[in-house]
Amino acid sequence: RADSSKCIVSGDPHTTPLTDEGYQAVLVQQSESKSAIFLRRVVSEYLGAAIVDDGAGLAALAAEPPDSMFDLLALLRAAAWLCLRSADVGAECADGAYGVDLSKPADDIFADLSWRDWGFVALGALVVVTVLGTAANIACRQFALKPQPAVQPQPAVQPSLGGAVGNQDDDDDDYEEGPVIAI
Prior knowledge:
β5 and β6 form a beta hairpin. The protein has a 4-stranded antiparallel beta sheet with strand order 1-2-4-3. 39% of the residues lie in helices and 10% in strands. It is rod-shaped and about 125 Å long. The longest helix is centred in the C-terminal third of the chain and has 30 residues, at 115-144. It has 5 helices and 6 strands. The protein is an alpha+beta fold and 183 residues long. α2 packs across α3. Residues 87-91 and 97-109 have low confidence and may be disordered.
């Protein structure tokens, strides 16, 4: 069973999630040692990086941490004291591991968006598509449905000369037929 404590936001830098919420829970305590523990987890677990100096860079960052996880990740990607471990990249870190230079900007500006942010982006896109689809539907209906003239009731056809004339008796419902005149 996976450790469920890593899903619960707490002030414990060892177990709180590596999210902005977890970061804020650690920052609010204003403890350099707890910030350093959380930062070390971000470096190793989130970025998969290695600290290549004696830890002075991490200690300096823990003393004055940025306000958000987004800013923290931007600083860590630019930190010269980190080396991202990746066997398929040829740069060798000081500890003998292979990695990339984190001082280069990230290729994908959306890499740091959490699932909540992506959810809001998708929801916004859905709203835009819905509004545009509704507008297109209304516009098409206006062109497709041309106004029809109102149907005027037709007067009853009156028999002309030579037609059968019905004469209704009030006493019974029988009709009498009149003379038929041929022209």
